Amino acid sequence: MNGKRTGKILVIISVIFITWLFMKSNFFNSIIDSKITSKNYGVPFKRCISIGNELEASKNISRDIGIKNEYFDIVKDVGFDCVRLPISFADYVSEDYYKLDEDYMTKIDSYINYALNDDLTIIIDFHNFVEIMNNPEANKECFLVIWNQLSERYKDYPRKLIFELLNEPQN
To answer: Other CB atoms closer than 10 Å to residue 163's CB: what's the count?
Structure first.
């Protein structure tokens, strides 16, 4: 195994271990047991983690990490019941009226379906669309067309598929 791959594996294992320790601590449990819980707001999860650095990559830039279905199993095994997927939809649209790239969407569908079959709630996060924050009027149509496609695509999915409309909106 080369050093770069070993380093990535160690980072993943470290993050999972530190997260597990944090979840087992009294501090974390006191937050979960407080009055501000997901149960009070009708949210179908209590503990969520992002699996990032892959789907939010720009179209021609690989983050060199990838997502594997086994990551969802690991997340579930250590006590999470939700996964957030940051996704850079705007980088994967055609110039022909912002049609989402079908190969990219098929990959996303496979992760969503695997997570749902693993009884995880999944949050789709519209990530890295800073253009709409910098120039809302020029990018409004793209944003709405993308969300129209997503709503049509996932309209028959269970409530455990949640949509984060826009990551960290500003201005």
So the answer is: 14
- Coil, strand, or helix at residue 88? coil
Average pLDDT of the chain? Answer: 81
Q: What is the DSSP string of 27-68?
A: HHHHHHHSSS-GGGGT-S-S-EEE--SSTTS-TT---S----
Angle at 49 (CA atoms; ends 47, 55), nearest 5 degrees = 150
pLDDT digits (tens, 9 = 90+) for 89-139: 999 999 888 999 999 999 999 999 999 999 999 999 998 888 888 999 999
How far, in Å, CA of 136 to CA of 45, rounded?
32
Pick left, alpha or beta for residue 166 (phi over 0 → left; psi -120 to 50 → alpha; otherwise beta): beta
Tens of pLDDT, residue by residue over 4-51, are: 666 666 666 665 655 555 555 544 444 444 444 455 556 678 889 898
* Contact assessment for residue 100 and residue 140, using Cβ atoms and an 8 Å cutoff: no
Helix (H) or strand (E) holding 136: helix 136-154
Share of the chain above pLDDT 90, in %: 48
